[in-house]
Design a protein that fits this description.
about 290 residues; alpha+beta; Diaminopimelate Epimerase, Chain A, domain 1; 6 helices; about 20% helix
Length: about 290
């Protein structure tokens, strides 16, 4: 994340994100919304995105623990609002027993519709038809429910953890096949791959976002939490654990809590802890 981004324009933010080469770089600035603690923007190396999960957890934790622009009490749960391209969302800070802050972030509302799996997209993933679980079948985020990259996400359940590990996409072909059906992200997942894990995921955004495979995707994890609840409902609130990034050598865990909002309507909150591993400065002279 880049502190004090309020005076940076989108061109400079995009240039910084391209230089950082992370899946997303976060840029906090004052929010125009009364009562909101901060406004967040996120850029991949190629474009601005609507919402981002793990960069939000990281950015808000840094603002609370390092910049101290978000004031936290010593005990209890502290709730804030923040704004972004997805609208007004909320986050909850909790200080653990050793003083470390843990954070849960509200994700944008998600719902799903049945989809088809084109043969060229399946071929681009390098998987046989038998690798895909017929239940519940392909699902994509419903019309009006954007993925973080602006268009729909396509969710495909596989039969086994082994099949998930064996995926080696042809990214150029995958980008073309996904674009043809107006899909921004292709998310593969398998349920209950290990004890204590509800799903393992892999997320590909090889098109305009410029992210071939994301090591951890909080926004997609939030959507998957809703999809799991829609297809395999249990009483709410419901806590889930998803893993991602093992195939990239960057294993991660995302904690998801699906909470009720109204009869027949629910929303995911994602969260976890943050560890700062690098601090630095950027010289913007001439930028």
């Amino acid at each position: 994340m880049v502190l004090d981004a309020g005076e940076l324009d989108a061109r400079v933010m995009q240039a910084i994100a391209a230089e950082m080469k992370h899946a997303e770089t976060a840029f906090p600035s004052p929010s125009p919304e009364p009562g909101a603690a901060v406004h967040l923007r996120w850029f991949t190396p190629a474009m601005e995105v609507t919402f981002c999960g793990h960069a939000t957890v990281g950015a808000l934790t840094v603002l609370a623990e390092e910049a101290r622009t978000i004031r936290l009490p010593e005990q209890g749960v502290h709730r804030i609002a923040f704004t972004c391209k997805a609208g007004l969302l909320h986050a909850e800070f909790t200080r653990g027993e050793v003083g470390r802050v843990r954070l849960q972030v509200e994700t944008p509302f998600a719902s799903f519709v049945p989809a088809t799996l084109p043969g060229n997209l399946r071929d681009a993933l390098g998987l046989a038809a038998e690798a895909f679980d017929p239940a519940p079948g392909p699902r994509r985020t419903a019309p009006g429910i954007a993925s973080s990259v602006g268009s729909s996400n396509l969710f495909l359940r596989l039969r086994s953890r082994e099949a998930l590990a064996q995926v080696h996409p042809d990214f150029r072909a995958l980008a073309a096949a996904a674009s043809a059906i107006f899909v921004g992200g292709v998310i593969l997942y398998v349920l209950e791959p290990a004890e204590g894990v509800d799903a393992a995921m892999r997320c590909f955004f090889p098109g305009e976002a410029g992210v071939e495979e994301d090591p951890v995707t909080g926004s997609a994890a939030g959507q998957l939490g809703v999809l799991v609840q829609e297809t395999l409902p249990l009483p709410l609130p419901r806590k889930l654990v998803f893993t991602q990034g093992d195939e990239l050598g960057r294993p991660g865990r995302v904690q998801v809590e699906v909470r009720p909002e109204a009869p027949g309507r629910f929303r995911s909150w994602i969260g976890g802890g943050t560890r700062i591993v690098l601090r630095g400065e950027i010289d913007l002279k001439g930028a």
